[in-house]
Specification:
Blueprint: E1 11-17, E2 34-35, E3 38-39, H1 40-51, E4 56-61, H2 66-73, H3 78-81, E5 88-89, H4 94-105, E6 112-117, H5 125-138, E7 140-146, E8 153-154, E9 160-162, E10 170-172, E11 176-179, H6 180-189, H7 198-204, E12 210-213, H8 224-236, E13 240-254, E14 257-260, E15 263-266, E16 269-271, H9 279-292, H10 297-300, H11 314-326, E17 330-339, H12 349-360, E18 367-372, H13 378-381, E19 385-396
Helix pairs in contact: 4-6, 6-7, 9-11
Bound molecules: magnesium ion (MG).
Magnesium ion binds at residues 248, 250, 273, 279, 282.
Amino acid sequence: MTSPSPTGADTAVLIVAAGRGSRFGGDVPKQYRLLAGKPVLMRTLEAFAAVLPSAALCVVIHPDDLRLYDAAIEALAPQIKAQLTAPALGGASRQDSGRNGLDALAALNKKIVLIHDAARPFVSDALICDAVRAARKFGAAVPGFAVTDTIKQIDAAGAVAATPDRSSLRAVQTPQAFDFALIRAAHAAAKGRELTDDAAVAEAAGHKVHVFDGDPRNMKITTAGDLAVAESRLLRDLPDIRTGQGYDVHAFTAGDAVILGGVSIAHDKKLLGHSDADVLMHAVTDAIFGALADGDIGSHFPPSDPQWKGAASEIFLRYAVDRVRQRGGAIAHIDATVVCERPKVGPHRDAIRARLADIMALPVSRVAVKATTSERLGFTGREEGIAALAMATVRLPVGED
Ligand code: MG
């Protein structure tokens, strides 16, 4: 298919994100989970907006997920937010959700609609273009690819009932692509019947559904294992690996707690500093600035500036993480060490890792926190203060400089 790339002015994209993710486990449905620091849904929306900057984008969400949805779209670029319609609310089944979404889009009078699973963030530019062209040409079309495994049909007892000819089978993905009026009428006619996907809805209405080439990379994130695979794949796509170090010291003064990695630990002293004196978070923040060769915490947040007096250090860390994202990169790993005789850090290690991971939007498995004493030697040994060291491994796209 070689027609010029469409901008999507006559196209709507319906992203179905109403699933509960029962196969995924955990509280947050998979489409709202973070993938290399960005919600899966945000990545999916960005993929469509990049190819179809004039299309209307509508997300079908579960009625309980409005806050998750708002959080997932919060950091989208303003021009993408401008493409979004209000979210449609999902129904009891995938089919109900699709129908509700189409009803919500009807007033826009679009010619073409692409219906896509929110949990497929790797949809490629080429696949989106092919879907739009196939919808124009055929009225109803789905991406599919030949299956390499032999497929067995089984009976109720689990025994093989038939072995279909593999050459006639296709594994089907999304975006499924339709003439808008065709699929909306087909959904209205199929109300109350249980059909597997939007293509089946079109088939039930008597339409021929064309199959165009799908993309094996367009994986659906269904399980926690899929999310880990997707995370690794995104990091692999960022080949410029950089390492930064950070080091910080704060002195003790009279007090009753120290803050380390955003966690308050009861102690008979506190740390002295212009901000909240979170020595560990400062070292981590500087390690990230170091990996970017982008100054240090003092140059971005001068201690002479009164607005940072008593500031929560997570402001600094979130800013450093944003600088990584602005470069199109991702943090691959953080490793930090706290040096002090007291308080004992070990019992708080997992709470600190969880807090730092949350602020940086990383899996906890990518954040290491260690602690050591200095054998009563030096200023840390004399309990005059705490030192912290950190290393950040950051991955950036190629071709920056
Ligand atoms: Mg400091």
